[in-house]
């Protein structure tokens, strides 16, 4: 595998992702921000965005096991929305049959491309 995910000593262990990814491959894959075009609540849009990332990764011959970094942009973010985000990630993980643990960042933003989009997820992966 080209990617190892770890929590080094001295940094907190976050239940939904690892703090560090170490990549040794030679092919870098960047997945554009994915959204849910069918709408839905935040959890449903998070789930669909992650499923779309998986589809994009597959197009490059990659899976979530190859992901070294995830970035999520959430419209009108507030901490009270975290349970919905976690629910969406858990549902996507269950459907895909994988643990999604790559280092991740979440940014609160004002808006996305259309008013119906509540979240966008982008990914970077490394392949051998």
Describe what this molecule looks like in 3D.
This protein is of the alpha+beta class and 128 residues long. The protein has helices at 42-59, 82-96, and strands at 3-6, 20-23, 27-34, 67-75, 104-109, 119-127. Strand 4, helix 2 and strand 5 form a beta-alpha-beta unit. Helix 1 packs across helix 2. The chain is globular, with a radius of gyration of 14 Å. The chain starts with a strand and ends with a strand. 30% of the residues are buried. The model has no long low-confidence stretch (mean pLDDT 96). Pfam families: Ribonuc_L-PSP. This is RidA family protein.
Short note summarizing the structure:
The protein has 128 residues and is of the alpha+beta class. It has two helices and six strands; from the N terminus they run βββαβαββ. This is RidA family protein.
**Structural class category:** alpha+beta
Tertiary shape: globular
User: So what's the oligomer here?
Assistant: single chain
Task: Give the total of beta strands.
Answer: 6
How large is the share of residues in beta strands? 25-35%
Give the biggest sheet: 4 strands, mixed
* Order of the strands making up the biggest sheet: 3-6-4-5
Topology pattern, helix = H, strand = E: EEEHEHEE
If you compute it from the alpha carbons, what radius of gyration comes out, rounded to the nearest whole angstrom?
14 Å
* Head-to-tail CA distance between termini: 8 Å
Helix count equals 2
Helicity range of the residues? 25-40%
**Mean pLDDT rating:** 96
Low-confidence sequence ranges: none
Q: What are the defining features of this structure?
A:
about 130 residues, alpha+beta, four-stranded mixed β-sheet, two-stranded antiparallel ribbon, globular, RutC-like_sf, YjgF/YER057c/UK114, RidA family protein
């Amino acid at each position: 595998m080209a990617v190892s995910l770890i929590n080094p000593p001295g940094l907190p262990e976050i239940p939904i992702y690892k703090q560090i990814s170490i990549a040794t491959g030679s092919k870098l894959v960047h997945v554009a921000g994915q959204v849910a075009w069918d709408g839905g609540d935040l959890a449903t849009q998070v789930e669909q965005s992650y499923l779309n990332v998986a589809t994009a990764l597959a197009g490059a011959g990659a899976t979530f096991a190859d992901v070294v970094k995830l970035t999520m942009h959430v419209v009108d973010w507030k901490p009270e929305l975290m349970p919905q985000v976690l629910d969406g990630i858990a549902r996507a993980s269950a459907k895909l049959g994988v643990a999604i643990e790559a280092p991740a960042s979440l940014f609160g933003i004002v808006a996305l491309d259309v008013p119906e989009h509540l979240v966008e997820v982008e990914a970077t992966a490394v392949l051998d």
